[in-house]
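Entry 14. Two folds queued back to back today. First construct below, sequence then structure tokens.
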Amino acid sequence: MSSRILLFDPAERFVVGTVGVPGERTFFIQAREKNRLVSVSLEKAQVSALADRILQILREVRSSEPLTTFERVVGDDQPLESPIDEEFRVGVIGLAYVSDRALIEIDMQAIAESQFESDELIEIDTEGDQDILRVLLPLGYAESFAKRANIVVGAGRVPCPFCGGPIDPAGHLCPRANGYRR
């Protein structure tokens, strides 16, 4: 079985959101183009890293190509679209700047069983049998996505001011307080 590349060139909507309560949230990215909607799940750390890397690429584009324009995009604060049917769980994420079209390309490949067994750097494998979600975004839209992603990641549980661990609604056992609840 060969992999499918789910291409959105460019996506009409590309957003990150969560399902569940803080501490038990599942992160999803959705891409929509006309009547086609694809949802993939991923880890909070992956969302955070993706947003950071997109913002880094945009800074590099601004400094190396000062004549490139960024269209201002109104932030998308709408919830994820229903139904949220997970197409696959993301394992590997690849990013590229397509300079001739002034777009950011984001490739998200389904997790493979072999990725659990290795700590090596893994690359997108278009010859394998894992599906790939490929989304191309204008620069302004990519910036809007990254800002929303950072807000969604930051909307989790409040960190403890003493130990930095997440505080649940019922409190938490703080190691800096010898196990007393905070």
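Second construct, same run, same settings:
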Amino acid sequence: MNTLSGRIRLDFHSAEPLYLQIAGQIEQMVARGDLKVGEQLPTVRELATELRINFNTVARAYRLLDEARLISTQRGRGTYIWEEASPAMLEQIRNRRLEEMARHYLEETTRLGFTLPEVIRALQTRIEKTRSETSAPEGSRRGEE
């Protein structure tokens, strides 16, 4: 088993698409220095086989990382870490991931028949709950008694 596939943990129950989970974890490994410039990644098919997922999912993750210039795929040679992740590059990847998650969320809610006002209302309610939970004094948060 390739060492990269052993470090990628996929949550098949998450609302976050698998390709974003893969791209995000590779991004984090580069940012932490676990993957270095010039290090070779497994092929799309190898990683897909090892993770037991469709190769198109890995291809989409690699494409996202390639567009951000974090990796480079060279036909006949393989896929390599192209650059160290600069703060600007990580911000670009984070923003792209956030946009993809938002798009996925909106597609899913539309598929389930929710209207845009209902989705906005649900998000506003969740945001307010999150704010109140994170601003509660220490010891008074849920589960802390």
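Quick look at the second one. Residues 87-111 form the longest helix (25 residues). The mean pLDDT is 87.
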